[in-house]
Design a protein that fits this description.
mainly alpha
């Protein structure tokens, strides 16, 4: 799912976000532990760059990153062309998955199914990455 904050719009400090972004990763510490050392460093650099783009950059950049890690991680994964782990989990458990997959299998035309809908685009992207389509599965 796309963030409500466009990629080029700077983030504002978090205020009770209550986001359900990562269902399996609940804390900032869990998130950073799930990354390799290189990914962790790359995420920090990404976060620091985002912080400097704010109208009033925070003086405690690392603290700001820790407070905004959920939105930053969404944007970071998007910038790398990857689907966030929570998005993968989302589609596995979404009640529409079976119906949407059946529609796409019937028409064999994922592009027609998407029709400009960003949520359906993310679903099709997940289907491709996880080889949900029958034509992608190895026999």
């Amino acid at each position: 799912m796309d963030s409500d904050i466009p990629e080029n719009q700077p983030l504002e400090p978090a205020q009770g976000q209550g986001s359900n972004f990562l269902q399996t990763i609940q804390t900032y510490s869990d998130f950073t532990d799930s990354l390799s050392e290189a990914e962790r460093e790359e995420f920090w650099i990404f976060g620091e760059q985002k912080a400097t783009q704010l109208p009033n950059p925070p003086t405690l950049t690392r603290r700001w990153i820790e407070m905004n890690w959920q939105e930053l991680s969404r944007q970071w994964y998007k910038s790398k062309g990857k689907t966030p782990p929570a998005q993968v989990s989302k589609w596995e458990n979404d009640p529409r998955t079976r119906d949407w997959l059946a529609i796409i299998e019937e028409t064999a035309n994922p592009l027609q199914f998407i029709a400009g809908d960003s949520e359906k685009y993310e679903f099709v992207k997940w289907c491709r990455e996880t080889k949900q389509f029958s034509w992608l599965r190895e026999e």
